[in-house]
């Protein structure tokens, strides 16, 4: 029979060994985590995002549909993990489920994201010659932009060849409600999307001409739809005017807008009509180069 002292030593020895093992195991995990961080391996939530993206890339032209089993085999992921990932992707519209077969395929949201990339990746390359020609023909600065989260983003800019000119730059963001480019792009949205924009928009008075309320913007967008182009009448900067027109896809959807900007005095009277014709013609030219339809779509005019 062991003495009390011996029991205490054994307990202490056992605890110390267990504690040492725990510390060593913790140290190994810590070393692995540190090494993973040093190697750039994503953290847990980032890994979950990457797995979701891997699910999307499993759908190809050769294999547009998958059932749970084929996805699990293709990605080497458990079905339980896949169900959670697919539920998230389905909720966001990136995958759809065939109710009869239970197979999965890419959803409309994936198509929309791919379409945005396809259009914007080629816009600058194909659009720059059109902008350059328009700038040379009109003597004004020319711009190409898309709509992103309620703002206009310039994807291509060609400055006027003259010393006094509007200065923009690629990547410039501007509020949509007070720019010609923005009004063209807003006018192309469905009515519910316009209302969603109006609910979150913050109207700031940039000049005495800036539109500062929802009703006035609704009227302005209706006018843009009616005439097929938009004007910025000193709404961003005093003395600066702009004419903008939509760039349409083959389906008739506006994916971008093109504009010419310059001094107010050169956007009045007969000059204004000449600029409108030049801008709308350049927009149709760029639409044709992008493979877009030259005819206006049915429904909303933009």
UniProtKB/TrEMBL annotation:
One of the Pfam families matching this protein, by short name: HTH_IclR
InterPro entries associated with the record: GAF-like_dom_sf (IPR029016), HTH_MetabolicPath_Reg (IPR050707), Tscrpt_reg_IclR_C (IPR014757), Tscrpt_reg_IclR_N (IPR005471), WH-like_DNA-bd_sf (IPR036388), WH_DNA-bd_sf (IPR036390)
Residues covered by region (Disordered): 1-41
Domain HTH iclR-type: 46-108
Sequence ranges assigned to domain IclR-ED in this UniProt record: 109-292
Family matches, as SUPFAM superfamilies: GAF domain-like, Winged helix' DNA-binding domain
UniProtKB keywords: DNA-binding, Transcription, Transcription regulation
Composition skew (Basic and acidic residues), residue ranges: 1-10
Segments of skewed composition (Low complexity): 12-40
Biological processes annotated in GO: negative regulation of DNA-templated transcription
Source taxon at top rank: Bacteria
GO MF term set: DNA binding; DNA-binding transcription factor activity
Name of the protein: Transcriptional regulator, IclR family
Source species of the chain: uncultured Chloroflexota bacterium
Organism ancestry: Bacteria, Bacillati, Chloroflexota, environmental samples
